[in-house]
Write a structure and sequence with these properties.
Distance between the termini of chain A: 12 Å
Largest interface: A-B, 55 and 59 residues
Largest sheet of chain B: 12 strands, mixed
Largest sheet of chain A: none
Mean pLDDT of chain B: 90
Number of strands of chain A: 0
Structural class of chain A: mainly alpha
Low-confidence stretches of chain A: none
Strand content of chain A: under 5%
Oligomer: heterodimer
Helix content of chain A: over 70%
Mean pLDDT of chain A: 85
Chain lengths: 333, 526
């Protein structure tokens, strides 16, 4: 099977997976306790007539299976419905909020890659030395500590105690300096973006960094023990070249897998990070929609996350098959 | 064809990272500006982003737009109304069904249109005509006649008690601009208030700018720009004020109060609000239908002690369904009600339960998260100490809203909820105790004595405030005596303010905060 055929096959395989996810998401959102209309009206005088009118407006008076079919028909037409609590379409709401989330997630990933690979290599090279022990402790802490808690600690240290960085909010680099009070030029705008981004980026990226570092270390140790590395050493090739050319490249295959699969974890982690750092992204929208029982928004975001996860898995599989010649495109041996 | 790209080496990448880090730590340029007349407000919940008062129904959007619009009447220091756009209090005719209003001449909207009686009339009628969520606040109005540009006559179907204390505090919208494009008006409002609409980004920030041509010269306005952002995370809000990222943080948790109070750079302040937190008993099914059982449960714990230990700075005790700040306007005998409520007396509680409750009595208490959940758990512990116990279930708010109206004993024997109203007792008595609101806003299903529900309805339909006092007083007394719902506490509106902000105090009405444009306060930034 060629690469193109394999890619198409994997995408077709994802369709029933996504349909299954849609059924589960819809059932969880609609059959759980709580009524969004009563939530909306709570705290004011109302009567049954008003409840029924609002239910009819949002189609909540129809049977669940009918609502599901309508919802799926909408999805295929690019319509994720209308928010019950906000007078907006779900797609519009998500569109407004996806850019800050992507900025956060991608920068967290950049931070994770930029720190985990050097640290992993260092730990492997200095195996069982103090540098290795320190990096393993960092990895252990990173893997076992929730990102929101790291965020709160970072705020306390760098914003409240030291006063070096802002405690919340984000300055968007795609805006103009005129949009922000006290920012007069583009360099200042980008500088403020970085200042605001540093803490949430570290908070969210620490888990990815720790995970990647552990894999990187293990793979590098494995690579450095291979016969061809021993042979290279015997030929007198410098340790730096051995690390860079002979050990490093081979060790990256499992790292690619982890990077792809962890993308959706990172987006999931952004939910709480955005809440703690008050970033107006999809994560915060997700929490608010759950609080308000805003079915349509909750389902829309969950479906997007699920789709991203499935796409991440597919891309990882394809990349893996592409990079490693030993991996076949599904032909029988 | 390939473009020549500069080669990015590892050295370059690491070098750039180090430079960025160094610049960030040094803080060598940028940062907050020092504009003295700017103030940054951190709200405690996200706004619905509805800035058209005809459709807006959340206090957090109102906190922003209250600076952009004028009210016909507005709250003073407390919950008493004062004329604003109206020249004086209205003339009342036809047994309280006709109100004649006169408004100031020469008031302009921010776009230059004159504010006329027609704008006032539209503000009264649009919620009902457009069937918005605010319709129930104005549906007592039968007809409005515009006498001339500055006078109007409002006729009600029947006398409506709360009209004088709240309904006539209508926020005045610009009829022409609004009806021209209602959708745009909702996010680009044109009012006549002391601030004009400024920059706005949905669920991010909203800014209002001082309007130099504001009509009321008596108002001291010293802040040029007010920026609102919301930060729902409590710890985040506290960090924001601690780190100097905001000038005012709203809704301060009790646990952080003393730390903030000890901070020389921050002032914490609060004002009692018209909120009523209560524990209602299931009077429909089960042992709590017996008032002696309800009384026993109230004897089993000390509300005063709970408030002092869990909410000393952010809540105050209350002794009737009418919040103390509302009672300041009405003067019901609160001290008498306090004496009538069961005191902490575990022996009496045990004796009453032994006599009136089944041996295996273990009531289910449902409560939302937070302070009320802690109180539910405290009650369960105290009941356990006297040999009964209770099952305190902490439910998400949506599940609670679904459950507390069933009236079934297996769902709940007691439930905790709260209500925020206005300066009129009707706002607490009608939705929470009148039989028409059973299964809607109340799930205690209290039948009451003969005439209990009729009196609540009569109080609503009476215009004379002295008569209303006489109608309501026995109703409140019965609630305190029979305890279909035990008054728990009233929450304070709290805020932490940078000490360089002078004159800002919390207002009882949550939507009136921050109180930056009031004759009673002179707020400035040093």
């Amino acid at each position: 099977m060629g690469l193109l055929k394999y890619t198409i096959f994997r995408f077709l395989q994802s369709i029933p997976v996504l349909l299954g996810i849609s059924v589960i998401v819809f059932a969880l959102a609609n059959l759980g306790p709580g009524d969004p209309v009563r939530m909306m009206l709570h705290g004011q005088e109302y009567d049954q007539e008003m409840v029924e009118a609002i239910e009819a407006r949002y189609g909540l008076d129809r049977p669940v299976h009918e609502r599901y079919l309508t919802y799926m028909a909408g999805i295929f037409q690019g319509d994720l419905g209308e928010s019950i609590h906000r007078n907006r379409t779900v797609l519009g709401l998500m569109g407004d909020r996806i850019a800050p989330t992507l900025l956060l997630v991608l920068s967290a990933y950049a931070f994770a890659l930029a720190t985990s690979i050097p640290l992993g290599i260092l730990a492997a090279k200095r195996r069982n030395k103090p540098e290795d022990h320190v990096s393993r402790i960092i990895a252990l802490i990173g893997v076992s500590t929730p990102s929101f808690w790291i965020g709160i600690m970072l705020i306390l240290l760098f914003a409240v105690t030291l006063g070096w960085l802002p405690s919340s909010g984000l300055v968007y680099p795609w805006r103009t300096p005129a949009d922000y009070r006290g920012i007069g030029s583009y360099p200042e705008l980008y500088y403020e973006t970085i200042r605001h981004l540093l803490l949430p980026m570290i908070a969210l990226g620490t888990l990815q960094m720790a995970t990647l570092m552990r894999v990187e270390r293990t793979q590098m140790i494995d690579s450095l023990q291979k016969d061809y590395v021993k042979l290279a050493r015997a030929y007198g090739i410098s340790e730096r070249t051995i690390l860079r050319k002979h050990a490093f490249q081979v060790a990256q295959l499992p790292v690619i897998t982890i990077v792809g699969l962890n993308l959706s974890t990172a987006i999931g982690g952004a939910v709480l990070t955005e809440y703690v750092f008050n970033i107006n992204g999809m994560g915060r929208l997700f929490i608010e929609s759950i609080d308000q029982n805003d079915y349509q928004v909750t389902m829309g975001i969950t479906m997007l996350l699920a789709t991203l996860f499935v796409i991440g898995v597919i891309i990882t599989d394809i990349a893996y098959a592409y990079v490693d010649p030993r991996v076949t495109y599904g032909e029988s041996e | 064809m390939a473009h020549d790209m500069p080669q990015l080496t590892r050295r370059h990448v690491l070098g750039s990272g180090a430079a960025i880090s160094a610049a960030a730590i040094a803080g060598c340029f940028g940062g907050d500006d020092d504009d003295d007349s700017f103030i940054h407000i951190t709200q405690s919940q996200e706004r619905d982003e509805d800035f058209d008062p005809v459709i807006a129904n959340d206090a957090y959007s109102a906190q922003v737009y209250q600076l952009v619009y004028d009210g016909l009447y507005e709250f003073g220091e407390g919950l008493e109304l004062e004329p604003n756009v109206a020249t004086d209090f209205p003339d009342v005719e036809n047994d309280g069904t006709r109100y004649l209003f006169e408004i100031h001449e020469g008031i302009e909207f921010h776009n230059g249109d004159e504010l006329t009686a027609s704008d006032v009339a539209h503000s009264f009628t649009a919620p009902v005509e457009e069937d918005t969520e605010n319709a129930s606040s104005y549906n007592m109005i039968e007809d409005i006649e515009i006498i001339d540009d500055h006078q109007l006559q409002v006729d009600l179907f029947d006398p409506y008690g709360p009209f004088e204390l709240q309904t006539m505090a209508v926020t005045i919208v610009n009829e022409d601009v609004r009806t021209d494009d209602p959708e745009d008006y909702n996010t680009n409002p044109v009012g006549s208030g002391p601030y004009t609409w400024g920059d706005w980004s949905a669920n991010e920030f909203a800014e209002v700018e001082l309007w130099d041509d504001y009509w009321d010269d008596d108002l001291e306005l010293n802040i040029d720009t007010v920026r609102f952002e919301a930060h729902a995370d409590e710890a985040g809000r506290i960090s924001d004020i601690d780190a100097g990222n905001t000038d005012v943080a709203m809704d301060i948790p009790n646990a952080d109060w003393e730390d903030l109070d000890a901070n020389d750079d921050v002032t914490v302040t609060g004002a009692e609000s018209p909120t009523y937190m209560y524990m209602a008993f299931n009077c429909n099914e089960g042992p709590t239908t017996n008032p002696e059982v309800r009384r026993a449960i109230c004897h089993a714990f000390s509300m005063q002690d709970f408030i002092e230990t869990h909410a000393e700075h952010v809540a105050s005790p209350m002794y009737s369904p009418v919040p103390p700040v509302v009672n300041e306007v009405w003067g019901f005998p609160e001290d008498e009600y306090r004496d009538m409520l069961p005191e902490y007396d575990p022996d009496e509680a045990e004796a009453l339960l032994d006599e009136h409750a089944p041996d295996d009595f273990e009531p289910t208490i449902i409560a939302p998260e937070g302070l009320r959940a802690q109180l539910a758990e405290r009650i369960a512990t105290r009941l356990d100490e006297i040999g009964y116990g209770a099952d305190a279930q902490i439910l998400s708010f949506d599940a609670l809203v679904d459950t507390y109206v069933t009236g079934e004993y297996e769902d709940y024997a007691m439930y905790f909820l709260g209500w925020t109203g206005g300066p009129d007792p009707d706002y607490y008595l009608y939705p929470l105790f009148h039989e028409s609101q059973e299964e809607v806003n109340q799930g205690h299903f209290y039948e009451g004595s003969d005439g209990f529900h009729d009196a609540i309805a009569e109080g609503r339909e009476t215009a004379d405030q002295d008569e209303r006092y006489d109608i309501y007083e026995p109703v409140i007394r019965e609630i305190v005596e029979e305890l279909p719902a035990l008054p728990a506490f009233t929450q304070d509106n709290t805020m932490a303010i940078g000490q360089y902000v002078d004159g800002l105090e919390a207002h009882p009405n949550v939507a009136s905060n921050p109180n930056l444009a009031s004759k009673h306060y002179d707020v400035s930034v040093e």
